[in-house]
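Example (one chain per record):
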Amino acid sequence: MEAVNLTQISDFLLLGLSEAPELQPLLFGLFLCMYLTTVLGNLLIILAVSSDSHLHTPMYFFLSNLSLTDICFTSTTIPKMLVNIQTQSKAITYAGCITQMYFVLCFGMLDHFLLTAMAYDRFVAICHPLQYMVIMNLRLCGLLVLVSWITSSFYSLLQSLLVLQLSFCADLEIPHFFCEINQMNQLASSDTFLNDMLMYFSVLLLAGGPLAGILYSYSKIVTSICAIPSAQGKYKAFSTCASHLSVVSLFYGTSLGVYLSSAGTHSSQSSAVTSVMYTVVTPMLNPFIYSLRNRDIKGSLRRLVGVTAL
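Predicted structure:
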């Protein structure tokens, strides 16, 4: 099949999660509700943290940044999917596809780094409580977030530039609900060896590295908790980590599974369904996970809702 020059490519076709016409209204309603819940829940977390001086601590600083990232993460994929369902069109422009892929990679990688920063915050709080405010000062927290943004942006730009060098055949159907990088590489008619190597290397380094840091932090946390003599003290220390540990398990389990499974025999449809977990479900659940077991957040939200009602 003859490759098409990049300048001649007009549109890609996003096949979505299902091509069955009878399922489209259900998918539209479901994903619209999930998107609105994600945006509203994470906005409430940001407003609660910013409006309450008691929450101006490193832990909640990272949490508000994570909430902002989750809003941006879902906003790069779900609105386009909803528009395509509503208009009964699967098209996305070539420039739009590359742009969407860039922001998906950027905000997805930013999630990895912020979760790692939050794990380090919990490590310092539990293992070095007397030095917590000295170590986790405003400058270090700001630097960690800034480095996370720069690294994520640079990585996404590099991946996008490599995709721009690829040639594509006439069949431009992407069996996914957004322009996912692995699907783009599979769709290309030119050699993708460099793209594939960079993708797997980056997963190992930029996702596996933070995961290793999280596991190391929690190994030290568990050791410190076990050394606490009272059962109540152990429960209190562990409860400060339970929410973060739940989000880490959900996010890493699904996101790494998608990319590692691409080397196996898993179908594109299965990959698309799995991607829903870390691109939609995890950002939606984060506000609930972090607020339901957190009295500070719940108290701040009650005061915020009370002020709004007045």
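Caption: The chain is about 75% helix and 5% strand.
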